[in-house]
Design goal:
Layout (H helix, E strand, L loop, with lengths): L1 H6 L4 E3 L7 E3 H13 L10 H22 L20 H19 L32 H15 L21 E4 L2 E4 L1 H14 L4 H4 L24 H7 L11 E5 H4 L11 H12 L5 E5 L10 H8 L17 H5 L2 H11 L8 E4 L11 H14 L4 E5 L3 H14 L4 E5 L5
Parallel strand pairs: 5-6, 5-8, 6-7, 8-9
Antiparallel strand pairs: 1-2, 3-4
Helix pairs in contact: 2-3, 8-15, 14-15
């Protein structure tokens, strides 16, 4: 009788006690076979090897199932089983509370969506507004979803396999250009405003520029997305570089901190002191004096456009202190505000008696870019009689600047540039 009930799947089995742990008898047998035969659920259940293994283990599976029935009295009721699901356990509640705490911390770093008085949609992460003509409909997602459900139900059964495309438009979907036929038409007004802004910052004579016939979209300057085109400088560096197998030990080492931060172990939920110790360890084997050059990140910079490109749309500003747990490396290194915060924090530490920190708050050069600061230290060291200077950086811009200024000033000192990825 028990065998007939087993074959007809008339009852459920449990690997452990609890009303939520019941599985059908055939599934119980299959799970038992997997656990005994392979040590876990792995591979394809219908493979020839698995089928042969399951058949061989069927007798022991049936025996275990029958034995488990005798573990419970005949008058056992459901009240003896554990009435609580695993989702309600103490460990799961602690994990849920930790998730809510992390979400609250992340939201506290962003702008409050209801504090802004603009009638347009507002991105709480980057602070940008959706233009009224963009037709963004994220705020109507619930009504759009209900309409799609009604249309899908009306199309059944013939429309069951039809493709469902999302009609929602987010701020990320805003196009900088519209394709008309084979051509892409850009927002020329925005590009013209950029030209005016750059012209005012760089004190350009716009009247002189407009005396010449201008291409509406200069392909050498503007890419297909409407952004300034970034040229490739790697071929130039390969043409100019001369590799040295055994360079002389340097009297002065100038370090590009932005590149160094990519070559150290980034702390996992640790503070800035871990970065400081990593930098000290990385520089401990370097002889002579050392200079750590930070970018100063002034309010207005010629590199702002490139920094905005690196940051992307979802960049979040963090308020960093000495004791603040650091976020991920990309969250810091791709955001101008966050890199400035980190440089201020690192500048408060002591890196050693032979290390000079050149930052926004503590430095002798006022230029925004660390590239220019490194060249300035090189020229100052060469003028003071330093014989061997080494620059640690992976940046091609730094290499091109070194070649130019060493040639222009006819520097007699030995100058080497060493890449971090070759160390």
């Amino acid at each position: 009788m028990a065998k007939a009930e087993l074959i007809s799947v008339a009852f459920v089995c449990r690997h452990q006690e609890g009303i939520w742990n019941g599985v059908s008898s055939d599934q119980f047998g299959e799970q038992t076979a997997f656990r005994i035969g392979k040590g876990g659920l792995k591979g394809m259940t219908l493979s020839p090897e698995m089928v042969a293994e399951w058949i061989d283990s069927f007798p022991i599976t049936a025996y275990i199932s029958d034995t488990m029935q005798h573990l419970y009295p005949a008058d056992a009721s459901e009240t003896r089983n554990v009435p609580r699901h695993k989702e309600e356990g103490q460990k799961r509640r602690e994990m849920d509370a930790d998730d809510r705490r992390r979400i609250s911390i992340e939201l506290s770093k962003m702008s409050h969506p209801l504090e802004n008085q603009s009638p347009h949609l507002y991105n709480i992460a980057n602070g940008s507004f959706a233009p009224p003509e963009s037709q963004i409909n994220v705020a109507e997602s619930v009504s759009i979803g209900k309409k799609m459900v009604s249309e899908f139900r009306a199309s059944l059964p013939s429309g069951f396999h039809a493709t469902i495309s999302s009609p929602l438009k987010t701020m990320e979907n805003i196009k900088k250009g519209v394709k008309v036929g084979d051509k892409k038409i850009f927002d020329l007004e925005t590009i013209f405003l950029r030209l005016l802004t750059i012209g005012q910052q760089r004190q350009m004579e716009l009247a002189l520029i407009f005396q010449y016939e201008l291409c509406p979209i200069p392909p050498s300057l503007i890419d297909e997305y409407g952004c300034l085109r970034k040229g490739s400088k790697a071929p130039l560096a390969h043409k100019l570089c001369v590799q040295t197998a055994r360079p002389c030990p340097p009297d002065l080492t100038i370090v590009d901190v932005s590149q160094l931060l990519y070559r150290i172990v980034w702390p996992c939920r640790g503070d800035a002191s871990i970065i400081v110790e990593s930098i000290k360890t990385r520089l401990s084997s370097r002889p002579g004096k050392k200079v750590l050059a930070f970018d100063k990140y002034h309010e207005i910079s010629a590199k702002d456009h490139e920094r905005m490109r690196r940051a992307g749309l979802g960049s979040i500003n963090y308020d960093l202190t000495i004791n603040t747990p650091l976020p991920k490396r990309d969250a810091i290194m791709r955001n101008k505000h966050n890199k400035l915060q980190l440089s201020k924090v690192l500048s408060t530490y002591n890196f050693g008696k032979d290390v000079t920190v050149e930052s926004r708050s503590d430095g002798i050069f006022a230029h925004d870019e660390a590239d220019i600061t490194m060249i300035s230290y090189l020229l100052m060291a060469a003028k003071s009689g330093t014989e061997v200077v080494r620059v640690l950086s992976d940046d091609t811009d730094v290499f091109v600047l070194l070649v130019y200024w060493v040639y222009r000033h006819q520097i007699q000192a030995t100058v080497h540039m060493e890449r971090w990825d070759l160390i």
